[in-house]
Specification:
alpha+beta, STM4215-like, 5-stranded antiparallel β-sheet, two-stranded antiparallel sheet, about 20% helix, about 45% strand, elongated
Length: about 170
């Protein structure tokens, strides 16, 4: 479940509430399965629904959803867009919720058997797919605006590495 660890690290770095208190992000695996084919090698794929629970979440939903969708575009681009993410929320009060996100993930494991040596070599295939839209940018700011006002955009979240080119 290496992808789930990567996703958790990404969200903790991208969502200000989680950066301040990472213990507010709980992670679980539901409905896990292993797909493999018979044969000499033992390569297989883990398929599971990851559940991420943000406790006492009082920010805008987009402060977590945008970084999540960005991560999925890089690490799970083949996921069915209609089934990629689902969510539920338990309203705690007028300002906060317990937010449960459900994300479908797959992880490929290459396991090559060498009968003569008596070894099995395992490699985890965690490919990262470059985003075509902005392949260079590694630093992001999420700017939001209330559609009911004429106010400008305000910074809601910021993540990634700062640019080294001075700009």
């Amino acid at each position: 479940m290496n992808k789930l660890h990567l996703l958790r690290t990404h969200l903790v770095g991208a969502v200000p509430t989680l950066a301040r208190d990472p213990d507010r992000l709980l992670t679980f695996v539901e409905e896990g399965s292993v797909e493999f084919r018979r044969g000499r090698d033992l390569s297989h794929e883990y398929r599971y629904a990851a559940q991420l629970v943000l406790t006492n979440f009082a920010d805008e939903l987009d402060t977590v959803m945008i970084p999540l969708l960005q991560w999925l575009a890089e690490y799970q681009p083949d996921v069915d867009p209609g089934e990629a993410v689902s969510f539920e929320a338990e309203i705690l009060n007028n300002r906060s919720v317990d937010l449960a996100l459900r994300v479908r993930l797959t992880e490929r494991v290459i396991a090559k058997v060498d009968c003569e040596a008596g070894t099995i070599r395992v490699d985890r295939a965690l490919p990262r797919f470059e985003l075509d839209a902005c392949p260079i940018s590694q630093h992001w700011q999420l700017l939001t605006r209330d559609t009911n006002t004429d106010d400008g955009y305000s910074l809601a979240a910021e993540w990634g590495e700062a640019s080294n080119d001075g700009g």
